[in-house]
Amino acid sequence: MGAGHAHPLYRDGDSVVHRVAPEVKIVCLVVFVLAVVATPREMLWPFGIYALIVLAVWRFARIPLRWILPRMLIEAPFLILAVLLPFAEGGNRVEVAGVHLSVSGLYAAWGIVIKGTLGVAASLTVAATTTARELSVALSRLGVPGTVTSMLVLMIRYIDLLASEAGRMRQARLSRGDSPSAIHQAGAIAKSVGALFLRAYERGERVYLAMLSRGFDGTVPALAAGVGSSAPASVRQWVAALMPAAAAVAVAACSWVIR
Fold first, then answer.
1. Which residue windows are transmembrane per the record (predicted)?
2. Which ranges of the chain would DSSP assign to H, the alpha helix?
């Protein structure tokens, strides 16, 4: 945990986006996602502009596509659900390559795919440019309750630890002749998952008790705001950094006006 100031999705760098105050990035993310979600799914051109905004931020943040695109596969389960909607929905139908598909299902699938993809892309952008320490400071500055902030930050910092623990447990099973691809080993894998959950729960209790013994009161210490994190954003920084989100809001408003 000595190097716990970063998290698995963080990409070390010194770009303009990295230097933006973390609370500004979080607000910008929320506003951008709300603008994307509020856009009518029947309108196609606004989503192209949103994609250009994300690509522009990636350019300023110096995040290469080969780094971020594989990490966007986290939305794959939702894409599978979207593929099924044109077949499951009712209403008017249209023939595509000899297959009759629901019009409302096609729009629903398009909305899930494009809005989910843009939301994941924006979230990964913030995650790639914000450390776990900066995240805790930002949430505190934004007035998020200390208990919620602590839970989120500790969860992020312990992802690597739990992943390593799961890897060690898997290696131990393999060294004892386990075959993960065999169906009859499903019971052993399920027991390993349960054991990992219990270990994580017990470890969490020990860490919490250790924190209490050191004076933890459920809030992020104010000292963290000046150690390894940027200073609070000025008004000029707020205006400059929120320009992508403001552009997204303007696009969403225009899409409703000319709908």
1. 20-38, 44-61, 68-87, 107-127, 139-159, 238-258
2. 16-19, 22-38, 45-61, 65-68, 76-88, 103-129, 132-141, 146-157, 159-175, 186-213, 235-241, 243-257
Q: For residue 55, what are its two tokens?
A: 């690509």
* Residue 179 CA from chain centroid, whole number: 33
Give per-residue pLDDT as tens, 92-120. 777 666 666 777 778 888 888 999 999 99
Contact of 128 with 61, CB cutoff 8 Å: yes
Record the pTM: 0.75
Q: How many CB atoms lie within 10 A of CB 240?
A: 13
CA dihedral 220, 226, 228, 230 (to 10 degrees): 100
Q: Pairing state of beta strands 93-96 and 99-102?
A: antiparallel
The rounded distance, in Å, linking the Cα atoms of 65 and 70 is 9
d(C-alpha 84, C-alpha 90), whole Å? 12
Q: How many Cβ atoms sit within 10 Å of the Cβ of residue 203?
A: 14
